[in-house]
Automatic annotation (TrEMBL):
Domain of life: Eukaryota
A Gene Ontology molecular function term of the record: allantoin:proton symporter activity
Keywords recorded for this protein, A-Z: ATP-binding, Membrane, Nucleotide-binding, Transmembrane, Transmembrane helix, Transport
InterPro entries the UniProt entry points to: UPS_plant, Ureide_permease
Organism the protein comes from: Lithospermum erythrorhizon
Subcellular locations according to the entry: Membrane
Record-annotated membrane-spanning stretches: 6-30, 42-61, 81-98, 105-130, 142-161, 238-259, 279-303, 324-344, 350-371, 383-403
Membrane topology value: Multi-pass membrane protein
Name listed for the protein in its UniProt record: Ureide permease 1-like
GO cellular component: membrane
Record family assignment: Belongs to the plant ureide permease (TC 2.A.7.19) family.
């Protein structure tokens, strides 16, 4: 079994995890904005997300010789370690609920704001819990100022969203008051035929709409986006999006502490002589429960959709290949990203590993590059956005600087 033991190796895992975890949300957002039902997308994502855990378990978890203290993945499947498995399962449940919620939140408040708020809540709650669970191996005088910076970033993100929503409302009001727009702001008759026709085109064929798309940030762009996207958001309260976002953040803040308990048994739930779960065994059960919850909820959402989405079916899902390869890729990126985060956390402390919550920096880049977020916004919005990203960079840097190194003694007795 391969284990990351050095601080350098742990930071390498975190950086790679950061890129993966910051990219997969952009792929799912892209598909929703092109009209693919989120239920279909998330089902595809769930299969490859679990596949990533299986690949990690059967490779890193099986490399080398199995020992009494560090048994291989397959060896641990036969051991009496159910208390730790249940912690891993609990972590997978809250992660699944959090990730599923963010998929709907992205539509309302944008990729950038959603990721910053959820990541910041995750750090404020989850990192504090992990600090004490890890036996305080991270430097508190550095760690907690970093947590404070994340908290400030939450409020700045809310300000960014509110300011940007006001900007969009002002842009759209000019369309709704246009004498030519007799049907009203949200009537389909206001849409140009060239925009309507793009809805029926393959979501994977970028070139078909490249020349017809209006400029990013204009009122026409917002109207065109609303017409094509799966989740309709114009005219709905911004509170809905923020409420979903904060619920997702609360769920996501608990998955890392639960995984920490699964691998280090701080509460001494295992029987004497039973080795702690390795990262790979814990990650397998963690991902299994995440997969089961996602499948159950999304199949239910096919027939009982939320947020006024159209109904679907298993048959329709199986026949929907538009954008499927991107959803499958997103699942793999998330699976490997989570696995790398846990591998780094086991070596350097899970509190420091929460630095991968810098993923909004990656997501914001994709949001601006691919989706035109914040184009043609007001000066106030740009000031809030710049302040949010700057505070986030400071917070992540401080959190990385707090990294410790888990010793063999702490691996056996994490509460010392």
């Amino acid at each position: 079994m391969y284990m990351v033991e050095s601080k350098v190796g742990a930071i390498g895992c975190m950086l790679l995890s950061l890129f993966f975890l910051g990219t997969w949300p952009a792929l799912l957002t892209m598909l929703e904005r092109r009209g693919r039902l989120p239920q279909h997308t998330y089902l595809d994502y769930s299969f490859t997300n679990f596949l990533g855990a299986i690949i990690i378990a059967l490779t890193f978890g099986e490399f080398g010789r199995s020992t009494v203290d560090q048994p291989s993945f397959l060896t641990q499947l036969t051991q009496d370690n159910w208390p730790s498995i249940l912690f891993a399962v609990a972590g997978g449940v809250v992660l699944s609920l959090g990730n599923l919620s963010t998929q709907y939140a992205w539509a309302f408040v944008g990729l950038s704001v959603t990721e910053v708020v959820t990541a910041s809540i995750t750090v404020v709650i989850g990192t504090t819990m992990n600090y004490f669970l890890d036996g305080k191996i991270n430097r508190a005088e550095i760690l907690f100022p970093g947590v404070g910076c994340f908290l400030i970033a939450v409020f700045l993100a809310a300000a960014v969203h509110e300011s940007n929503a006001s900007d969009n409302k002002a842009k759209l009001s000019s369309v709704s008051t246009d004498p030519k727009n007799e049907a009203g702001l949200y009537d389909n008759s206001m849409f140009d035929e060239k925009y309507k026709s793009s809805v029926t085109k393959d979501v994977e064929d970028l070139s078909t709409i490249e020349e017809e798309m209006p400029e990013f940030g204009t009122a026409d762009f917002l109207i065109d986006l609303e017409n094509k996207r799966a989740i309709k958001v114009l005219g709905k309260s911004t509170f809905i999006g923020l409420a979903i976002t904060f619920f997702a953040g609360a769920c996501l803040s608990l998955f890392s502490p639960a995984f920490n308990l699964a691998t280090n048994d701080q509460w001494h739930a295992l029987k004497d002589g039973v080795p702690h779960l390795t990262v790979y065994t814990a990650f397998f059960f963690f991902s299994l429960s995440c997969f089961i919850i996602a499948i159950i909820l999304n199949i239910n959402f096919l027939y009982r959709p939320v947020l006024d989405l159209p109904k679907s079916s298993i048959k329709a899902y199986l026949a929907d290949w538009n954008g499927r390869k991107w959803a499958l890729l997103a699942g793999l990126l998330c699976g490997f990203g989570n696995g790398l985060q846990f591998m780094g956390g086991q070596a350097a402390g899970y509190a420091a590993a929460d630095a991968v919550q810098a993923l909004p920096l990656v997501s914001t880049f994709w949001g601006i590059l691919l989706f035109g977020e914040y184009r043609r916004s007001s000066r106030r919005t740009y000031i809030y956005l710049s302040s949010m990203l700057l505070m986030f960079i400071v917070a992540v840097s401080i959190l990385m600087a707090s990294a410790g190194q888990r010793t063999a003694e702490k691996l056996q007795s994490p509460t010392h």
